[in-house]
UniProtKB/TrEMBL annotation:
Residues 91-112, 448-470 are annotated as: Disordered. This is Tetratricopeptide repeat protein. It comes from Streptomyces finlayi. Coiled coil: none annotated. Residues 454-470 have a biased composition (Low complexity).
Length: 470
């Protein structure tokens, strides 16, 4: 059995030298101020790094550490590569120091440019979809042809399982930056290939079979999330159900908890709050044996969202309280790798959504504002989402000019983020603001209208090109 215990980061401990953890934390904060960063570093954080609990720092801490130690890379400081922490490799490998931490971009994807978007999309096609296809011996065949030509007794080994897991990693990395709309159709191909392996393949080892079931289930959830975020709710529901069935067949409690977590989120978003509560409670039952306090915290917040949708303020408060209690127990090696997004910013955002559903706009806005302040700017999609939530809460709370400013912040990111969900949230907020338009609101409305026309034009152009290829 592979060990998942944190491995102490002895390199980082040596760099601290004779300074106490508190003194070194103060040096980190000073270095952050020198480059315009804000990090809440304290002795406890330094202890978590040195104990190996944090395998890789978040993006802000990375910039600070590299400023403090010029010429060094993260691995020179005793950390693990980002890709290993962001993907499933974080759970199955004991080669690097420490345990999971907030994710950051791969070393090659730091800049915010159109060129970066093209590189990432090519990377997905070559390292995600195409790698899966190649590993299955499919070459450049279409997905349909690939499935019909798959041998009935194909042997499945490390190559095929690694390819499925790599597809999951690439989808998550791209969604962090660009949202779901441009990824969903392409992501369906490796999902079909993965389930074809489950249906028709054989494996030589039980461990390989278990990894394939988990990988296929996680891929179904990832593709389901892309459907969810791009407004394809029935597709999302189908993918989550597929993942849940896979979890039940494989007896995989972690996968079952993940599927219920996403199913609860979808139910809340589609106006089925009672179903959201039931799914969240089922997820908590599945997660109890896994040892992850952070997973229980997230599932409690999913329950809180459902209860808020039911108008159950007391039940919502209780669920939020349980979430805080679990969250404050901290991260651990038992946390699933897909939860790297669940940091304090997301904790604030999910509370904002609860209070918004209950009509407490000032309280919702406070949490949404806090979420935007805490969110690492690398995660462009979530930053746009948090700003859209803030825009809506401020608008409904009667703070029109402040809402307009937040709305401009969303539009600043929508050239890089393709998410129907975020666009719908922003459009709803603008609709509220239009009822009593100030000069600042009129400026936002004009810019929003231009952005919508641009999106419509791009969609029409894309459809025309697709028709030509067909």
């Amino acid at each position: 059995m592979v060990s998942t215990r944190p491995v102490p980061n002895l390199v980082f401990r040596r760099l601290r030298g004779q300074r106490s953890a508190g003194e070194f934390a103060a040096a980190v904060r000073r270095a952050a101020r020198e480059i315009g960063e804000q990090v809440a570093c304290d002795a406890r954080y330094i202890g978590r790094v040195e104990s190996g609990e944090i395998r890789c720092p978040n993006y802000a801490y990375e910039r600070v550490f590299l400023h403090m130690f010029p010429g060094a890379g993260l691995e020179d400081l005793g950390f693990s590569a980002r890709e290993a922490v962001r993907g499933r490799g974080a759970r199955i490998s004991d080669a690097g120091p420490g345990a999971g931490s907030p994710p950051s971009p791969p070393p090659t994807v730091h800049c915010h440019t159109d060129e970066e978007s093209d590189v990432l999309r090519r990377m997905f096609m070559t390292s995600g979809t195409a790698t899966v296809a190649a590993s299955l011996g499919l070459g450049g065949a279409s997905a349909a042809a690939a499935l019909t030509s798959l041998p009935a007794q194909r042997r499945v080994g490390e190559t095929e399982v690694n390819a499925v897991e790599q597809a999951v990693r690439q989808i998550r990395l791209l969604d962090d930056r660009h949202g779901a709309d441009g990824l969903y159709r392409r992501a369906a191909q490796p999902l079909r290939a993965a389930y074809a392996l489950l249906d028709a393949g054989t494996t030589t080892r039980r461990a390989t079979a278990d990894r394939l079931h988990t990988g296929a289930g996680e891929l179904a959830i990832s593709v389901g999330w892309l459907a969810h975020d791009s407004g394809r709710f029935e597709d999302a529901r189908s993918h989550y159900a597929e993942a849940l069935a896979t979890a039940r067949v494989a007896g995989d409690a972690a996968l079952e908890a993940h599927a219920f977590c996403n199913a609860s989120f979808l139910a809340r978003d589609t106006g089925r709050p009672r179903e959201a509560v039931r799914a969240a409670e089922a997820g908590q039952r599945a997660a109890r044996s896994l040892g992850s306090a952070r997973l229980l915290a997230l599932l409690a917040l999913r329950e809180a969202g459902g209860r808020a949708g039911l108008g159950d303020r007391t039940g919502c408060d209780r669920a939020v309280g349980r979430a805080y209690g679990a969250f404050e127990r901290g991260a651990s090696a038992a946390d699933p790798e897909w939860m790297t997004f669940f940091q304090e910013a997301e904790l604030e955002m999910l509370q904002a959504q609860c209070w918004s559903a209950l009509g407490d706009w000032p309280r919702a806005a406070r949490h949404a504002r806090r979420a935007t302040q805490l969110q690492d700017p690398y995660f462009t999609r979530n930053l746009a989402l948090y700003r859209a939530q803030l825009t809506g809460d401020l608008a409904r709370g009667g703070l029109a000019d402040e809402a307009a400013t937040a709305g401009h912040g969303v539009l600043d990111l929508l050239d890089r983020v393709q998410s129907s969900r975020i666009r719908t949230m922003l459009a709803g907020a603008v609709g509220v603001l239009a009822q009593n338009a100030t000069p600042a609101v009129r400026d936002l409305m004009a810019r929003h209208g231009e952005a919508r026309r641009g999106t419509t034009g791009a969609t029409a152009s894309s459809s025309s090109r697709s028709a030509g290829r067909a």
